[in-house]
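User: quick one
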Amino acid sequence: MMQKNLPHICPSCSSTLKVKSLVCEKCATEVTGLFSLPLLASLTQQEQDFITDFVISSGSLKIMAQKLGLSYPTVRNLLDDIILKIETNQKNNKTASK
Amino acid sequence: MKKWLFNPFIYIAGTKALIIGWAAMLGAAVIGYYSKTHFDGVLDAHSGHAAPMWFYFEDALVDWSLLVVIFYTAGSIFSRSSIRFIDVAGTFALARWVMIFVAIAGFGVYMPGPNQPVSMEEMMKRVMTGPVIVCGLLSLALVVWMVALMYNAFTTSCNLKGGKAVWSFIIGLIIAEVLSKLILHTIY
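Assistant: Done. Structure below.
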């Protein structure tokens, strides 16, 4: 089955998208409102997988480097790039909510 | 393959890179002793002057130490990441592995030293031969390859990108080149 990516940026105006409704697959109950997407949802699938692996590796860059077959600084750079992206998204979200 | 040739630091860094890099540098120093090729500056390779073997090891040590100290300092100033000294030391050692080929190419560009005076005419005759020109151009290409490796060593070990990486690398390299020339000239 094709994996769908959760869109988080408006294709029309490039603003951050919000969740309007949630539905129960079992009984079709629908909850409607205006919910913010979790911060991590704004990352790409690859970045989310990296974070998951990082948590599973107890936050050890050395273990991550061994798992991925990459050098320690390469893995640290990947993590630092994700941190920077999260910080930028946080800042943008704060500015948008003002 | 391209990544392994120009940016092996994606896969190897730290102590492993330091050991491989230093083994290659020592190898280049030994070959350089026999081909009379000196690495008398972080970007220099000159052939022709016979010297005791320890001079060749000293060249390698001075060049590498300066690069590591200068680029670790630059990384500490400009990078947002918490960089490790061992990564800078290891990646810069590994970046200089191509010096082995430069030392080998030195066999083809052998020139008389200061204690073996020859006339200008004789000198030009020796320099303008096919093998010497080919080996000279090959050495130049190898030094360019080494610079590309050193740039990637710097950006990977210090997590720098864009203009900040380019400018700090150029300035750092000029400082390292000038200091290495001064220090090695003082020692000799």
